[in-house]
Amino acid sequence: MHLITPFKALRPATGRAADIIAPPYDVLSSDEARTRAAGKPWSFLHISKPEIDLPPGTDAYSPSVYAKAAENMHKMLDAGVIVRDDKPCYYVYRIIMGEHVQTGIVASASVAEYDNNRIKRHELTRTDKEDDRVRQIEALNAQTGPVFLAYPDAPAIDAILQATVAGTPDADATADDGIRHTLWVIRDDATIAQVTRAFDALPALYIADGHHRSAAASRVAAARRSGNTTHTGDESYNYFLSVIFPAHALKIMDYNRVACDLNGLSKDELIAKISAAYTVTPASAPVKPAAHGEVGMYVAGQWYKLAIKPELIPADPVARLDVSLLTEHVLSPVLGIADLRRDKRIDFVGGIRGLPELEKRVNSGEMAVAFAMYATTMQDLMSVADAGKIMPPKSTWFEPKLADGMASHVID
Known about the structure:
This protein is of the alpha+beta class. It has two domains: 4-251 and 399-410, no CATH class; 255-374, Conserved hypothetical protein from pyrococcus furiosus pfu- 392566-001, domain 2 (2-Layer Sandwich), CATH 3.30.1760. It contains 13 helices and 21 strands. Helix 4 packs parallel to helix 6 (127-140) and helix 6 crosses helix 9.
């Protein structure tokens, strides 16, 4: 079984990409999606967030929501707004955000290789979120949200991507947020075979984002396999929609922490306790950490630079992460926040919002202290996955985000 295979994508008809592409389903609330889709009858949000077409207050997990997604998808197909390729292809997908450019390949990735951990994960999943994705796949008979994967250094694959983007794109659109999304179709059989062989030679792929989507695809495949007496392994349900980028091209931003109180401590007491593990230095400007082991702290209108004492950095790939060190030496023992998944006293702020957002949250009185983190690296992520371990919650914030609607994987 191949690591990836080409597939017959469901994608925007010529000239319709700008009408269709939308943010990922899980980055907008229902109200935000309703606003973003207003006046846009072909926005993919009508498929990925179909509750926007039902009365406000409709439960997003109601059977009527999944039925509406299927109805909307068929409406777009019937109108010719989205079309399906007549032969299995690979697709090259480029995203441009400002000066940052990343180019990857859209493919169907092997569920079997996910199940045996050659497609490696680094996060835990929640059953309720998996259930949602399973219902969406089953209702549409398609996977519409791609799993964001990374491949290790592979110059041969990089070269194929670069050669492809020299040609005329099949879809090109700039989203509302100014991010440009471009797609090229690889139709040539020889190039398709070359791509398949190049990926088969890789030791592993790594999930960057989309753990619930990949887990849901695995569950759907298992159910369909058990119900198919003529199962061969070649059926499309044995693969899941993915966009695979070179790890060296990905941009991980900081994922920052804010806490709503100081656990009964004064600012001076807080600093004194933190000083057991970190060197604390007042700063005259906002502190954006420049290296592993550094943290910026904003409390009572003042920024501080925290530097972990080197002897406290362990070798373990999870324990040595900056987010782990902060939990181990500050959040848990000093602020009394040990369970980052459930404790309501902590919140998380993606680095795309910048350090002013941290100041705003503290200055407003909503939060008492903010911690600006050094961004987790792709090497960190791959080391954790290679060790078969799990990252702490909210360890990575990838930008730019993939667009929904550029390509979908039909489950025949």
